Amino acid sequence: MATTIFHGKRSSGSFTGLTFKILSWTLIVTCDMAEGSIMDVSALGPTKHWKEYLPGFKDWTATIECLLPLAGMGAMTIVGTEAELTITVTDTGARLYKGNAICTGIGPSATSSTIGACTLNFQGTDQLEENANV
Q1: How is residue 62 annotated by DSSP?
Q2: Distance in angstroms (rounded) separating the CA atoms of residues 116 and 128
Q3: N or C terminus of the chain with fewer C-beta within 10 Å?
Q4: How far is CA 19 from CA 12, 35, 49, 85, 88, in A?
């Protein structure tokens, strides 16, 4: 049975009306954990002293490396801006990540042997939707 996979060869993204060609991207989703361990006299032995945890608030961040257009992206103006961030992984829109985020940083770069690129960092401000258009 074939497994469906995805890759980043045709990824694109958008934020504040800007659309950009993505070279690479990373999403990190985390969950705060609260320790809920209670010492009990019945737990008298090393095999009974395991900590217990409870899940708390979820959070996400994104780092995107994209092509830098010749005219630039107006990038300095998007730092600190909150808007909807979308990451489309294939040209058919088969996998999409979407959520409101604040652009927390930008890093344009270029070398003598590559085209201009830009790294964008985002902090999610609400739920991240996966496969949002499916």
Answers
A1: E
A2: 29
A3: N
A4: 7, 42, 53, 10, 11
What is 91-119 written as a DSSP string?
TT--SEEEEEEEEEEEEEE--TTS--EEE
Question: Which residue type sits at 53?
Answer: Y
**pLDDT of 79-100, one tens digit each?**
999 999 999 887 555 678 999 9
List alpha helices for the chain, DSSP H: 75-78
Q: Among positive and negative, which fits the CA dihedral 33, 103, 10, 109? A: negative
> Pairing relation of β-strands 12-15 and 82-88?
antiparallel
Count Cα neighbours of 78 within 13 Å in the Cβ-side half-sphere.
Answer: 25
Residue with tokens 């959070």: 59
The ranges assigned to domains in the chain are: 12-32+54-130
Angle of CA points 113, 118, 124, to nearest 5°: 150
Give Cα 95 distance to the centre of its chain: 14
Can you give the pTM of this predicted structure? 0.79
Mean pLDDT of 127-133: 80
